[in-house]
Amino acid sequence: MTMATTQKSTGRPGRRIDLQVIGPILALIALLLIGMALNSNFLSYANITNVLARSAFIGIIAVGMTFVITAGGLDLSVGSMAAFVAGLMILVMNLLTESMGVTLPVILIGIAVALLAGLVAGVINGILITRVGIEAFIVTLGTMGIYRSLITWLADGGTLSLGFEMRELYRPVYYGGIAGVSWPIIAFVVVAVLGEIVMRHTAFGRHCAAIGSNEKVARYSSISVLKVRLATYVLLGLLVGFAVVMYVPRLGSASASTGLLWELEAIAAVIIGGTLLKGGFGRVWGTVVGVLILSLIGNILNLTDFVSPYLNGAIQGAVIILAVVLQRKGATER
Amino acid sequence: MADPILSLNGVSKSFGPIEVLHGVDFELRPGEIHALIGENGAGKSTTMKILGGYIDASDGDIRWQGAPVTFGSSDEAEARGIVMIHQEFNLAEHLGVDQNVFLGREIKRGWRLDHKAMRARTAELLAQLECPVDPSARVSGLSVPAKQMVEIAKALSRDLRVLIMDEPTAVLTERDCEILFRQIDRLRAQGVAILYTSHKLSEVKRICDRVTVLRDGAMVRSAPVSEITEDEMAAAMVGRELSDLYPAKAVPQDEVMLEVEGLSVPGLIETASLTLRRGEVLGIGGLVGAGRTELAEAIAGLRPRGGRVRLMGETLPAGQVKTAMERGLVYLTEDRKSAGLLLDKGLRENLTLPLLDRFGTVLIDRKAEEAALDKAIADFAIRAPERDMPVGNLSGGNQQKLLLAKTLLSDPQVILIDEPTRGIDIGTKQQIYTLISGLAAAGHAIIVISSEMPELIGLASRVLVMHAGRIVGGLEGDDVNEGAIVRLAMGLEETSEEAAA
Fold first, then answer.
1. Interface predicted TM-score (ipTM)
2. Average pLDDT value for residue range B12-23
3. Which residues in chain B have their CB less than 8 angstroms from residue A13's CB?
4. Which of A116, B150, B282, B398 is the most exposed place for a label (fewest CB within 10 A)?
């Protein structure tokens, strides 16, 4: 990492950064135009609401991921963690329904369980990475496997479902909303706005960028590097719990395939949005744009028939690689 | 006199609208050591990078053996035997010495690497350089001077015609400098053309044949070294006569500000003790690796330690940087590029980093930050073209001033300064010396660690010398001289009472 800083930096930074700022936005606008040209239903209220609501889960997680990556870390476990937390939440709610009936307190306890489980999972990742000192990649690869296996075991290889009546009671959290805007969208917007403020205008955000940029400088500047690092993982875990609270009322179930590849989509969204994978610079609004780009690609492919939706992954993959290529060009240009 | 092998004729260089080099003429001849000196930001680095093929000239031409030439990249320059040794080494830390020496030009037998031949050739080169390093050792485990020797060995392994050295002695102790000078002499005798930069004018006077002075991107003087004195060089660099480099020393008061008792760091420092009074500048001398930096870092809470540290009468807990800062003790690192500043961030972010909680409660108060930066730029005379430029693009002197501003932002009482003027020009040095003695006169207590003896002698009223992890002696008043410091630093004698090992 110190070797990289010795590279010559004779170019002017101003123009480069501008291009990096507009890049993702231009891509998003282009996608919107393509969507409009290909299908008249694309801009319909139903379609847009659907796209936004479905991207809310990944989006909320990706906001947390932005902090982790900005501080020079990585978390591969979030998809499995979401599945496990969802399964745990459903189990607890089903159990409580037997004694407490189909009532609001059961939902509130379920929500608390999800948030707490996410928090604890984040603490575990964070402690192993910062205190025990194992690479983030290895720790979260491990916990990814553990949580995926645990949810499979909890569901006995099948599906954990919320009781039918309970599902009806909880449903509005996903399908309801205010003034035609559904709750997941509102939640995503709130998390994103708060995230942007924390990243840009608080000491915590500044410390994350400093640690990702050069951990030694941060330590010598009397920043508690380990605490800040730990906090990024805890925040991400908490946001995973929050995403699950929004996700469970959608289908009312969790299985071994819940949240599959979410971690990669979240990381991809962060990178497309212009956050540096090696840390040191992050922007939350970029991540939001990244999430929207990824889900619009899927949506457009579903609405049109000349490219198979099965190629969704291929196109998303190409976009991710392209985004990183553009970033790198900006960084090494003479 | 031999014809120039590599020369610049009326070369200018612009970065965007700003021209940083104005029509520079410069010649390198085989068998001649040509010094290029100037203050930070005078255009030395740019000139060197153009010669080394790292950047293009905007105007004028570069000539190789008299014929105009353009280097597409540093590789093309290297193919002709032009090698630049950077201040920050370009070594792959995790590879062995031999692997580094032959990196990219490995000797092969068929399709397989010929490890034996490379190792033998590396050993030969190192022996030539009097460098007792095992060719198979990993570079990450080497000392700074040894790494520099590896860089030189790497240059020697090619057909070396032109060697460009960017402040090679900035990271070396006096003894290692001597070895380096012998090598440079030998290369000169072999007909290599050498460009040498240094802020130490005595070195220039001693080893170079010719000197060219740059100021603000233009050549102001070029003469054989025999025809120019050190004072004239300094005056040409600064553009004015330099008054006395070191300001008058403040008189220490009685109040003890810092008391260190039996401090130890396993494997690095054995029971070091010292006291520091209000208004005192205490120097710490010694060779690189004697444990000076480690001692300061241990006091400042950057390293685990044993023993007791009392700051203004109160015990300071070990290993807590933040507490130390809050109680009024700070450490200014010698390594500004990898421990001092975030090179890819702007001035404001760097300045306020240690003290963000003083700028706003929940949200950062951007205006207060900007005001603090205004003040720092004015107080420390920081020259930066733009406020939000990455500080990595600032000159070394301005980086150092920014680092000082950052470290002093919390208004500390006890300040540990490690190598205050490493790699910066004489004008900025003088500013920093004035600042240090001003702080002492204002009642701060200061420890200055330095490998430059004139600096210790000129600044400190008392000097402690370390050798192999121990404080081996203290010198005061008229006893502070180079000879005494060197004898202690080399471990030749001890003056402290508890002298037994």
1. 0.82
2. 81
3. 389-390, 393
4. A116
